[in-house]
Amino acid sequence: MTRLRWGSATDVGRVRANNQDHVLVTGSLFAVADGMGGHVGGEIASQTAINALQKEFEKDSSIDSLIKSAKNANKAVWQRSQKEANLKGMGTTLTAVGLIKNNNEEELGIVNVGDSRAYLLQNGELSQITEDHSLVEEAVRSGQLSAEEAIHHSSRHILTRAIGIEQDVEVDNWIILPYKGDRILLCSDGLINEVDDSHIAQILREHKDPQKAADFLVEKAKSNGGSDNISVVVIDILEDEVSTKATSTNPTSLPVDSTPHKNVIDDLEYPSAAPISSFTPSKNKSKPLHAMPKKKIFTLRVVIFIFLLLLVIGGAIGVVDWYAKDSYFVGLKKNQIVIFQGRPGGVLWFKPQIVDKTPYNTSQILAFHIASLEAGQKEPSFSASKRFVHNLIKEAKQQKTFAANTPPPVNASSTTTSTGLG
User: Fold this and answer.
1) What pTM does this model have?
2) Nearest to 191 by CA among 265, 131, 119, 122
3) What are the pLDDT digits (tens) for 101-115?
4) CATH superfamily of 3-243
């Protein structure tokens, strides 16, 4: 059984008049929502999304249920914005973690829409799980902007995807295995805009109690400026089902392919187990065990050979990676026109990635172009791909205008000529 401990904090910050963020913390579901849409709209959007998420997830604890819960949150915000004129256009981000059942085992499901984030602190290293759905971050991922340029970019707050803006929304999702000692962080952009990842990691490592860690992160963001609402949820994994099953099967040893997971939060109330050797002690303890001299395996020559081999393999992978990603093409996702980075069909295990979902579909272009889009229309750069899409739409509009302004041809068979004597 997976056991969790958590802490949360939310604050209006030093600039905003009201707090449009909402957090959710239960024993099995945790979420952060950052609302937008006027003085009242953002606060209502985030609260509506949180309520709908929780209500739907209570019905079934699976990854499909978690995704459905996020979509249900989108539907709830969208429908309310359509009914109340003063709420039209409201929306919210939504990042959530749920304790789910997958093949009768407990795992952690994560969903995300918008630019609130989920992080994982494991073995003292912080990694970002989610990807921001913002104009600037998508430009960074496509190589148009550097990470440094993105920090102070004027469009960094413009979202490309959010809860409640459209009738339906695509929900990013992940499943991760819970390991004892891991720590998960959910936060709104009010934290990450004021505190960089290295300082976030440092605070998470230093403050072992999740509530104290959450409080300290919020205070750090406020002291650094507090230009936005700040919301934080910190979740600690105290015991995981995977390691519990492994140790209960054979208390004296682990299976050959099992590795004890190091608890990076050393002074938790539930300390991690000491590393277990793969050697099984002799049942007859009265006989001393004499160690046989070991043959030296790693000589300098072997080490050099392995280093060079890894260098060659790494270089080869790097070349394949460069080749696979040094191209763009325009294709289709269902009927929507999208821009991919990579090569049609992919190269080995490097699959093309969507870098831009255009607002156009196949009904807005000339029909004879569809076949080339299905095959993938290669372009030398992202900007060239954008121009290609623009030209497709422009061509279709020109054709439509031409057809509208051209009189229909005269049907000769319907025209009669009268001849004869008057």
Assistant:
1) 0.58
2) 119
3) 988 889 999 999 999
4) PPM-type phosphatase domain (3.60.40.10)
